[in-house]
């Protein structure tokens, strides 16, 4: 009864920002990012790719609570780039990779559709 409406778990409100950055003073070249309305799906993807980035020394994430759709990501770099730049670069790489996957999937789907249509024409005597 007191659970929030389902759309509130993924849609941002009027005054909510998707990502906020807080520079972490405890370690050099480190920032904490809070991603609203996200969960393990995006956080794990970002963290694993950030760990593979050349200038990232450390990256990890945690969820505040299972019922709170909010992810906390900490990124530390070697100082060559800022943590924000590292996050942006990884996001650009992921967008490019998924765009390529979409193109390949669409091409394969269209080819299979043409082959299937050709097989039906042969079965009908055309």
Automatic annotation (TrEMBL):
<dbReference type="InterPro" id="IPR037685">
    <property type="entry name" value="RBP11"/>
</dbReference>
<keyword id="KW-0539">Nucleus</keyword>
<feature type="domain" description="DNA-directed RNA polymerase RBP11-like dimerisation">
    <location>
        <begin position="31"/>
        <end position="103"/>
    </location>
</feature>
<dbReference type="InterPro" id="IPR022905">
    <property type="entry name" value="Rpo11-like"/>
</dbReference>
<dbReference type="GO" id="GO:0046983">
    <property type="term" value="F:protein dimerization activity"/>
</dbReference>
<dbReference type="InterPro" id="IPR009025">
    <property type="entry name" value="RBP11-like_dimer"/>
</dbReference>
<protein>
    <recommendedName>
        <fullName>DNA-directed RNA polymerase RBP11-like dimerisation domain-containing protein</fullName>
    </recommendedName>
</protein>
<keyword id="KW-0240">DNA-directed RNA polymerase</keyword>
<dbReference type="GO" id="GO:0006366">
    <property type="term" value="P:transcription by RNA polymerase II"/>
</dbReference>
<comment type="similarity">
    <text>Belongs to the archaeal Rpo11/eukaryotic RPB11/RPC19 RNA polymerase subunit family.</text>
</comment>
<dbReference type="GO" id="GO:0005665">
    <property type="term" value="C:RNA polymerase II, core complex"/>
</dbReference>
<dbReference type="Pfam" id="PF13656">
    <property type="entry name" value="RNA_pol_L_2"/>
</dbReference>
<dbReference type="InterPro" id="IPR008193">
    <property type="entry name" value="RNA_pol_Rpb11_13-16kDa_CS"/>
</dbReference>
<dbReference type="InterPro" id="IPR036603">
    <property type="entry name" value="RBP11-like"/>
</dbReference>
<dbReference type="GO" id="GO:0003899">
    <property type="term" value="F:DNA-directed RNA polymerase activity"/>
</dbReference>
<dbReference type="GO" id="GO:0003677">
    <property type="term" value="F:DNA binding"/>
</dbReference>
<keyword id="KW-0804">Transcription</keyword>
């Amino acid at each position: 009864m007191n659970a929030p409406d389902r759309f509130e778990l993924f849609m941002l409100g009027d005054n909510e920002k998707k990502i906020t950055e807080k520079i972490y003073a405890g370690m050099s070249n480190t920032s904490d990012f809070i991603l609203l309305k996200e969960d393990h799906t995006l956080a794990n993807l970002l963290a694993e790719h950030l760990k593979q980035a050349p200038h990232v020394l450390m990256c990890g994430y945690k969820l505040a609570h299972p019922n709170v759709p909010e992810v906390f990501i900490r990124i530390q770099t070697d100082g060559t780039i800022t943590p924000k730049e590292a996050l942006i670069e990884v996001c650009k790489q992921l967008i490019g990779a998924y765009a390529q996957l979409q193109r390949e999937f669409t091409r394969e789907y269209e080819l299979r559709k043409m082959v299937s249509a050709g097989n039906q024409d042969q079965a009908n005597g055309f």
